[in-house]
Amino acid sequence: MSKEKTKTDTSPDITPENLEKAIEKYQRQEVIRILKGGVLNDLNDKKRAELCHRLAGLRSMEIIDFLSRQKNTFSAEMLELDFDVFQNRNFVCDVLEKYEKKFDTSDEEECKKLFTLACAVNAEKTVKSLIRQKKAINCYPLIGTASLQVFEQISLIAGGQMHDNDRVQLYLNAFLSDEWEQKLIFMLENKIDYSLKNTDGKTAADLLEERVNTYKYPNSKKGNLQKIQEEQALKRLKKIQYEKEHPAESKKPSVKKLILTAIICIAAAALIGTVAGRAYVRNHASTESEDLSAEEESDSSDDLSAE
Question: Could you tell me if 303 and 295 are in contact, meaning their C-beta atoms sit under 8 angstroms apart?
Fold first, then answer.
């Protein structure tokens, strides 16, 4: 009994200062103990928001579960972590998927922050929900930067819901992303006109070409790979656009294909000739052998007659 009392007495007090110390040391269980002591009750909104942001950085769903039981709603700013760390992206995505209803989607500014956050962590469910509610429309170009699964939600965007400039930017973002090939295939299969022009009369391909010609890529392995990727995307887009504008020419075989076909035909003819030649030699040899046998039989017959 006395030992339990001593242990309780030596525990840090339930104060915001001790909560911050526990957060700094990543002492998740100690954080939960202090939270359950009601440390957040007497804090103003600003201080509470700051602490909740730091608490999210611990990546503890148990802590998030506790916060979800409080009366206050969640905010997108609370989950704005360092997304260069993939564990943070996965954690925030899980929180968005599980506690979607804890965010105030009646506030358009909050919806914009939430949509931006969802695209950053590839929270498909959140993006889909906001599109269906017609929220954060000005943020839709960010869909192009997200994963293929999130990008495919552009099918939910009704015609005329987005300004042409935003659509062109969305397509450009898609062509600048790592999954540009898969996204391009998705657009082609779903007959999405990525050749749409903005108010300046430029398509996403035009803007990509301008970037490739003017952008100063970082002089690093990552920068070189980025340049190669974007040049490949531009080359593919130009080829598709040319074939679309010149359908008759695109059906004609290229010189390279004609040469390759000719080489194959010549090789095939040579092979057939070789096979035929060998067959002729075998047949000729067989005929000579038969003639020789016939002569030998005739000679043998003549010898017997003479005897």
Answer: no
d(CA 39, CA 52): 12
Q: Is 81 helix (H, G, I), strand (E, B) or coil?
A: coil
Sequence-separated contacts (24+) of 185-188 with Cβ below 8 Å: 186/148, 186/151, 186/152, 188/240
> Which residues share a beta bridge with 103?
74
Contact 275, 283 (CB under 8 A): no
pLDDT tens, 72-128? Answer: 789 999 999 999 999 999 999 999 999 999 999 999 999 999 999 999 999 999 999
- Tokens 């000579």, located at residue: 288
User: Exposed (0-12), middle (13-18) or buried (19+): which is 100, by Cβ within 10 Å?
Assistant: middle
What is the reported pLDDT for 247?
Answer: 81
pLDDT of residue 3: 47
Percent helix, strand, coil in the chain (nearest 5)? 70, 0, 25
- Rounded distance between C-alpha atoms, residue 15 and residue 42, angstroms: 10
**pLDDT score of 189:** 95
Helix (H) or strand (E) holding 56: helix 45-56
**Weakly modelled stretches of the chain, pLDDT under 50:** 1-8, 292, 296, 300-301, 304-307
Residue with tokens 């989607």: 105
Burial, 247: exposed, middle or buried (Cβ in 10 Å; 0-12, 13-18, 19+)? exposed
Tokens at 145, concatenated: 């930067």
Instruction: Say whether 42 sits in a helix, a strand or coil.
Output: coil
Length reported for the chain: 307
